[in-house]
TrEMBL record:
This is CRISPR-associated protein, Csd1-type. NCBIfam families: cas_Csd1. The lineage of its organism: Bacteria, Bacillati, Actinomycetota, Actinomycetes, Streptosporangiales. It comes from Actinomadura rubteroloni. Pfam families: Cas_Csd1.
Amino acid sequence: MLLKHLADHAEQRPKLPPDYYRVRSVKWALQLDGDGNPMAQGLASLATDDNPAGFPMPAPYVYRSGMKPPPALLVDTLQYVFAMPKDDSLGEEEEANRRNDAYVALLRRWRDSAPDDPRAAAVVSFFDRARHLNITLPEDAKHSDTVAILLSGDREYVHMRESAVECWRAVVRERKSTGNAKGVCLSCGQIGELLDTIPEPIKGGAIPSSNGRTRDAQLVSINKPAQGRGGTIQLGNTPICDRCGRAMAVLNSLLADPEHRFRGSDTVTVWWLRDEQELPLGSALDRADPADVDAVYKAVDKANEDIDTAVDNVFYAVTLGANQGRAVIRDWIDVPLTEALQHVTVWFDDHRLPDPWKGRERVLPLWQIAQSCGRWDSDKKRYVDKSAPDATYSALLRSALTGVPVPVWVLPHLLHRVRADSRIDLPRVALVQLVLSRPPFKETRVSNEENVAVIWGRAFAVLESIQRRAIPDVNTTIGDRYLSTAMTRPQATLTRLFPLANGHLKKLKNSKQQSSRAAGFALEVKLKALLEQLPDGGPPERFELRDQAAFIIGYSRQGSEDITRARAAANSAD
């Protein structure tokens, strides 16, 4: 069904390249006049500062492999177009000549299929006269650089002409079809011309890799008898028709669209709708722009009002990983659009937090929440790149789109990082709140204000405020030194810090400054009120994981409330 839904989506992507074309970086251009004579002795460079690998344009492309890979029509490497060898060895020169001969033969086929196209005749005339062998290639050119052909007076390259598109379509179908009678496609269930292999792979780099090495990947690849049922290779056991084979072009288009993809460290998720409509889902989740987040809520309201739309439209998403040259489907979502959007709005509601510095509640970008599972660099004041577990981003994305709980491994890992870094910030609090808002913690009300761990978290924040007020230029706060202990052994921490807090309070209350004395009395009342809510014996000796999470919630709430009150007081004083 995946291929069918992708193929059906082709009609809704108007900027899709022609059949068996793919956006490629073309570094050089060969310019000819109307008679097939070169306009210059060399090649024109299409590379720019923004695109050093060449100008991106749709160009003929098909997956090729083997000892004698065939040429592409018109747009190919310098090895094919100008017989440029990889090196000076005799074997490489012979191989370059062989590939060039095959390239020219394909050009002749194009000319013969379009006798009324003068551009085809002009291009073939240039190569038939071997003028290409006299072109001076740039010194920095490589045999793997791609070159396109442009005729004088034309605004588009010759490979975009209708005759070239039709010829290339026929060539690819001939190369990739089974050569047998039509059959039933396993994807769409319709009778059509079956493919031997899927012509277009997933573009290299479209699926991220944790090791940084990427290459083209095939969604279906059975090239050894041991891999196929009954020893059948290629698509013998998975018959795919030509129309469904075009699904890969749609998939590559979605993978190249920032609004329709979510890139993790080792997976990528693309999404689309059966009936296309304006929906800024990508920017709402991954950038948390307030206008886009609001648009998602409005889309849910509209779908609930329009019952027909809610029933008819469907949300699709596929998560892909890569293993060598093969794509791996990690997840597949096929649900009504309303259901998917409701999951996303619940995701927003579950982690929405007050931002005291901005004076409003806000949701956070998905990537920022995932990044909070990484290691904090206190010197650079940011999270270390790629220090979070590889699966974090994709796991949180799945939770956002489907409403499933955050994986069980996330909370212990996050708590470990909080203790190791001695840092609690908005993204980490948001993730803790997400975990506690979903099973198995949702029904336990861990984050309730009556929870001893929440109360102790608030009290620890007040203890830290007392120290900061008494020693404004303190180098190492009690949060820096005791946060990890406070999360795991609260009783011992309170026993250690309470005498210190009393000393700080005494200093503040005896200060000559009225503001310091007032702060001292206010902080003393606040701390006393919180400690009185603890059991008679004080906080427990140890906290388990859920208590540590609740401690973070309490600590964050107290800090946020204190900042809000301080800013309000400062504004009223002004």
